[in-house]
Amino acid sequence: MPRRLAPRATLLPGRLRPLALLAALLTPLVPGAALAQPKPQKIGEFQAWTAASFAEGGHKTCYAFTKPEGERKGALLTVTHRHNARDTVTVSAGPGFPRNGEASLNVGGTDLPFYTAGAVAAAREGAAAVRAFRGGKEAVLKAPAASGKGTVSETFPLAGFSAAYDAISKECPAGGAPGGGRR
Q1: Residue 153 falls within a domain, yes or no?
Q2: Which of 20, 40, 151, 171 is in the most buried spot, having the most CB atoms within 10 Å?
Q3: Coil/strand/helix, residue 148
Q4: Any residues with CB less than 8 A from the CB of 170 and at least 6 apart, and which?
Q5: What is the dihedral of CA 108, 61, 100, 143, to 10 degrees?
């Protein structure tokens, strides 16, 4: 009786695993793969704010953002208009925030309530934040640190916000859901 060998196919998956992993890691480096990502188009720069848009899934998204004052990198204050939501106001910070935490953004003595959700802190009432930004000079975020110890404080300039907001509102006119904040 001839000796039965294991089918060759059972040996290949183990040998192919490193190649499959390598292929998965290299795919983002292939020029065609990069085309799948939406490419932002700058609408304009307005003092401390930049406005841009991108199209994804047949819908245009417009956003305006600013960086904090000082040397800190990785933090952004952003206002976004999507086809189904307007005035979504978020702050992203390098190390992020704890989930389900409470934060606030102070503009001209008014504390705006935010909640933290890992990588971002989001305004509970986006439209109220936008109204405050229009009349303010700076926005100061106070949020719990990602480590759970202490707080994060970021100061964002509001110079140019109104012009940037008007630009994204013109580029992405209302037609979706009004409001903003938590849904």
Answers
A1: yes
A2: 171
A3: coil
A4: none
A5: -30
Instruction: Say if residues 167 and 51 touch (Cβ distance below 8 Å).
Output: yes
Encode burial over 117-148: b for 16+ CB neighbours within 10 A, e otherwise.
beebbbbbbbebbbebbeebebbbbbbbbbee
Domain membership of residue 7 (yes or no) is no
CA 91/CA 97 separation, integer angstroms: 10
Residues 6+ apart with CB under 8 A from 83: 59, 60, 61, 172, 175, 176
Give whole-number Cα distances, 81 to 11, 33, 70, 130, 163, in Å.
52, 27, 27, 12, 15
Helices and strands of the chain, counted as H and E runs: 4, 10
Q: What is the pLDDT of residues 119-138, one digit of tens each?
A: 999 999 999 999 999 999 99
Dig out the tokens for 11 from the structure.
Answer: 């040996």
CATH number for the domain harbouring residue 48: 2.60.40.1880
Q: Would residue 110 count as lying in a domain?
A: yes
Handedness of CA 74, 76, 81, 87 (dihedral sign): positive
Q: For residue 5, how many C-alpha atoms fall within 13 Å in the half-sphere facing its CB? A: 4
Instruction: Say how many domains are in the chain.
Output: 1
What does the pLDDT look like over 42-96, one tens digit per residue?
999 999 999 999 998 889 999 999 999 876 678 999 999 999 999 999 999 878 8
